[in-house]
Amino acid sequence: MPHLPRTRHRTSSSKPGRGRTHRRTTAVAAVSALALTALAACGTSSSDDGDSDGDSGGNADAAAPLDPGTKVTLTIDCMPPAAEKAELKQWKEDVAAFNKKYPNVTIEGKQTDPCLEPPRFTAMLKAKSQPDVFYTYFTDLQQVLDNDGAQDISAYVNDKSVPALKDMDPNVLNVLKKDGKTYGLPFSNYTMGLLVNRKLFEKAGLDPNSPPTTWEGVRSAAKKIAALGDGVAGFGEYSAGNNGGWHFTATTYGLGGDIVSKDGTKAAFNNDTGKQIVDNLKAMRWDDDSMGKTQLLKWGDLQKQMAADKLGMFLAAPDDITYMVQNLGAKYEDFGMGPIPGQQATLFGGNDYMIKKGSSPDQIKAAIAWINFKFLTVGKGQFDWARTKADGLPVGLPQPNFWTGDSKAKDDKARAASSTMPVENFQAFTEKPVTGKAEPPKAQEVYKVLDTLMSAVLTNKDADADKLLKTAEQQVNQVLANQ
Amino acid sequence: MTSPPALSENKTRPSPRTDSRVRRPERDAFMAAFKRNLTAHAFLIGALLCFSIFSWYPMVREFILAFQKTENGETVWAGWSNLTYIFNDPAFWQAWRNTLLFTGLALLLGFAVPFAVALVLNEFRHGRGYLRLLVYLPVMLPPVASVLLFKYFYDPGYGLFNRILESVGLPGQAWLQDTDTAMISVVIAATWMNMGGATLIYLAALQSIPGELYEAAELDGAGILRRIWHVTIPQTRLILSLMLLLQIIATMQVFVEPFLLTGGAGPEGATLTVVHLIYQYAFTFNNYGSAAALGLVLLVLLAGFSAAYVRLSRAGSED
């Protein structure tokens, strides 16, 4: 406890013998100064190292592919943890295969589970302690750039270093660009849809192959599912940890609305669309009692309810199913997906790899070669579906889905051939893809404001929709004005 | 000390020999004392280094960060803009209101309940050891486990508390999901989790009160309440006031309980606290400048409070 020593020190200074106390104070100050100097020195050397890396030799022709004889070491985020045996085995196989072509590139994987935790990630960027190749969410670009954390790799990314580049969804590539410069390459992506529990749908007399596509339909289905009783909720929604704001955004996009104006300076949700969302949630929660009593839920809570067959529907990405199967003992065949209600647009997100600022040209080339081999080549690495099936891992989820053109055709075929789950359960989601839309600027700060709105609607029967939307609008305007 | 004439000679005409003769005994004494306490100094260096690296340096760094801004890789001096930002954030005032409410309620419950429990325990002649263990047990549980236990108790659907209420014909409550009851629910959980330590400290203080004082009070015809008021409280005043200070400092920094019970903000921000807002600024919004500025405001307030408290208690002890 830091308070007690402070009190004791104060007592000792009031005693006779000021000279001794003074010497003690001087000694303390000297040691503190030494410690501060040492820390400052550590900080300086780390930053110096980074700079010198950037200036170090290597092949200066950025557009040229990596020379197979190049000797370089890379540290890389998100190597599967030991508990994920099959995934780790695949990682090691891929490193061995990669090293056949590039025998002098040493891949040092860093096991982190989960791959990214926002507090750890933020601290890592501040300390500039990220690996040479580090994992980020699509929404992290501005944060990374604010911390001067990523290398501009525009000159290195071309159809030679990433042959399938032309077949990659331009929307996905664009979120990794700022002012025309590329800072990352995708790992995976998702678009949001309506996840349904097929067992509960059938029990309630609903068709699980045709999930509702409008909010009226969702409300009606939720009522029927909740009528099953035994603590079953028809529809679930988040309202804590900023997740409520995230889902309000997804719902708004689905109905063709927006969260901020096109120029990004004003809130754009205090309108009929916003009111429709709030009123519909309020009606489901309080009039129909179809959303369960437990609220203030955040990511992980709804998945638990659905895996336990206590929840009929919620907005989700396909990998929520993987989480429920791998972590909560659920079965793939019990779930299905439909498009987001409204279908005007859907929120998309994902994750990617960036390369640490200050990496040498050879490190950058080696990193791109590895990312291309492991994550961006149809039939190899993460897209080797036959191997994934053989290793007992799931195949068939519509994620990642960033391919277009020939690559998409090839990947879809390979995925279907090795599918380990009834892919027809996701047909409603995949057959009419909804246009993806990126998250708003200052996403987390905006979500914090909208979280309050969501928690009010779901916990306060008398919540005033107009007042809530107006207050949220004012606060989001303030957030945007503070950019 | 040297004699005045010698000192005056030194001042007018410095002489290295005279100077060294004058200073040597003092330096020798210092060196002798230093050598004598060498082991103690060696131990001290470790502690000083730890405090320097993990407490004092972060404090200095926080102070600097509060006046800086990092954008597009450049850190620049931001003047008062971080403070302006936090004062303009509507969540700032809400977080302070909530924190003060939590502190007030936590003092009401967290200060009075452990003292009352200690008074009761002190009266037991048998099984005191078991009871002490029972009271201290929640402190030994990992905080996360305790909080999750309460999260289950409070659940409006299947929670224990509503089951109990319903079994006696009372309506279930929304507990953490109602703006009116969310904060008190958090306080109850926090008090249960943390009261063990305070109870043991109060119990130790109570046991140090000489029995004769109670006997004298009894002979004078004092009942239980008067004995507590005129004997127990004056005799434990020092420990009570110290615990009050520590508890205020600790409760103003509440984070874990609301973070786990309500996701931090709670219904309509009813359990958003200052430290959670600092956490959000730093780790959700990547706005370290504002986080540091808010941390500084909290530090100044707590330091001011502590200083005022020390001054008041000194004045009280001199009276």
Write the layout of secondary structure elements.
The complex is a heterodimer of chains A (483) and B (319).
Chain A: H1 3-13, H2 18-55, E1 72-79, H3 85-101, E2 105-111, H4 118-127, E3 133-137, H5 141-146, H6 170-174, E4 177-178, E5 181-182, E6 184-191, E7 193-197, H7 198-203, H8 215-226, E8 233-235, H9 243-254, H10 272-287, H11 301-307, E9 311-316, H12 319-328, E10 335-339, E11 346-355, H13 361-375, H14 385-390, H15 405-417, H16 427-430, E12 436-437, H17 443-459, H18 465-481
Parallel strand pairs in A: 1-2, 8-9, 11-12
Antiparallel strand pairs in A: 3-11, 4-5, 6-11, 7-9, 7-10
Helix pairs in contact in A: 9-17, 11-12, 17-18
Chain B: H1 4-12, H2 16-36, H3 38-65, E1 68-71, E2 74-77, H4 81-88, H5 90-123, H6 128-140, H7 143-154, H8 160-167, H9 182-207, H10 211-219, H11 224-235, H12 237-252, H13 256-262, H14 274-284, H15 288-318
Antiparallel strand pairs in B: 1-2
Helix pairs in contact in B: 3-15, 4-15, 5-9, 5-12, 6-9, 7-9, 7-13, 9-13, 12-15, 14-15
What does this structure look like?
- The complex is a heterodimer of chains A (483) and B (319).
- By secondary structure, chain A is α/β, with parallel strands linked by helices.
- Chain A has two domains: 72-191 and 349-417, Periplasmic binding protein-like II (D-Maltodextrin-Binding Protein, domain 2, 3-Layer(aba) Sandwich); 193-345 and 434-481, D-Maltodextrin-Binding Protein, domain 2 (3-Layer(aba) Sandwich).
- Chain A contains 18 helices and twelve strands.
- In chain A, strand 4 and strand 5 form a beta hairpin.
- The longest helix of chain A is centred in the first third of the chain and has 38 residues, at 18-55.
- In chain B, helix 7 crosses helix 13 and helix 12 packs antiparallel against helix 15 (288-318).
- The radius of gyration of chain B is 28 Å and the shape is flat.
- Chain B is mainly α.
- Chain B has helices at 4-12, 16-36, 38-65, 81-88, 90-123, 128-140, 143-154, 160-167, 182-207, 211-219, 224-235, 237-252, 256-262, 274-284, 288-318, and strands at residues 68-71, 74-77.
- Chain B is built from 15 helices and two strands.
- Chains A and B meet through helix 1, helix 2, helix 4, helix 5 and helix 17 of A and helix 3, helix 12, helix 14 and helix 15 of B.
